[in-house]
């Protein structure tokens, strides 16, 4: 084998080895990068002020946040002032509009406890319709399940109308206009139909109301342990009571 033939062959073999090796390395690195990108990240502990859960198109579906970064009150892109800041979770429907959430808080102010917590589900384009809530304020505590009827009036319409009524001069005319608006021609904007829980007077209660939100039937075990069923008229007066005596007989 002559030197002239051997040298080009050596160079060709060296170049081929370099190409094969480089390609292999690139393939290994690419596979490693793909595997790393596809793997679900795992954290033992993480500090975060807010988490947004979004759809592939970026539409917001849920937030989990501290009080400072809690989202504002926004409907159809309009910012509505007045939401108290609190830590918790807020849900958004298929259209990106808020439709419920979980909130909680607790503090002592001037030696008095102010605490609350709840889970709420909103009527479409309106406010809370099913709520599980606890509240404690200056020694008065209430907790339970509430179901509220909501009129089919968009919440932005309600807010706009209320703001215009509040701008009226204080007096009988404003009070009458606000009352008429809230009563909504016999179909109240909001009427609590059911409460089941513990009221501020330490009674275990199931209260059922008519479509105007007036309690009509009340099942109760009071703070002394006495059980009763009360029927009420539209003015809230008890018209009949079924109670048990010390022997368990009803009267």
Structural notes for this entry:
The chain is of the alpha+beta class. Helix content is 24%, strand content 40%. A twelve-stranded antiparallel β-sheet has the order 1-2-5-6-7-8-9-10-11-12-13-14, with no helix packed on it. A two-stranded antiparallel sheet has the order 3-4. The model is unreliable at 1-6 (pLDDT under 50).
User: How would you describe the shape?
Assistant: extended
Radius of gyration (Å): 32 Å
For the secondary structure, the number of strands is: 14
| Poorly predicted runs of 5 or more residues | 1-6
Largest sheet: 12 strands, antiparallel
- Average the pLDDT over all residues and give the rounded result: 86
Strand order of the largest sheet: 1-2-5-6-7-8-9-10-11-12-13-14
Query: What series of H and E elements makes up the topology?
Result: HEEEEEEEEEHHEEEEE
β-sheet strand percentage? 35-45%
Task: Supply the number of helical segments.
Answer: 3
The assigned structural class equals: alpha+beta
Our measurement of the CA-to-CA distance between the termini, rounded to an integer number of angstroms, reads 123 Å
- Give the % helix: 10-25%
């Amino acid at each position: 084998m002559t030197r002239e033939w051997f040298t080009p062959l050596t160079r060709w073999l060296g170049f081929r080895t370099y190409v094969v090796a480089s390609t292999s390395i690139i393939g290994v690195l690419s596979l490693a990068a793909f595997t790393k990108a596809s793997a679900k990240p795992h954290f033992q502990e993480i500090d975060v002020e807010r988490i947004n859960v979004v759809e592939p198109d970026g539409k917001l579906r849920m937030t989990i946040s501290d009080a400072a970064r809690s989202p504002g009150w926004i409907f159809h892109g309009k910012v509505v002032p007045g939401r108290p800041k609190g830590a918790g979770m807020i849900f958004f429907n298929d259209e990106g509009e808020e439709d419920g959430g979980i909130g909680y808080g607790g503090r002592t102010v001037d030696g008095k406890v102010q605490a609350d917590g709840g889970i709420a589900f909103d009527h479409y384009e309106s406010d809370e319709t099913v709520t599980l809530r606890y509240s404690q304020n200056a020694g008065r505590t209430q907790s339970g399940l509430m179901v509220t009827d909501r009129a089919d009036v968009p919440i932005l319409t309600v807010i706009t109308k209320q703001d215009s009524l509040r701008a009226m001069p204080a007096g009988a005319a404003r009070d009458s206009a606000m009352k008429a608006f809230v009563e909504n021609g016999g179909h109240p904007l909001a009427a609590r139909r059911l409460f089941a829980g513990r009221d501020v007077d330490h009674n275990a209660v199931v209260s059922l109301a008519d479509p105007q939100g007036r309690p009509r039937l009340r099942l109760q075990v009071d703070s002394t342990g006495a059980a009763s069923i009360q029927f009420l008229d539209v003015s809230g007066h008890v018209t009949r009571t079924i109670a048990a005596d010390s022997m368990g007989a009803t009267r």
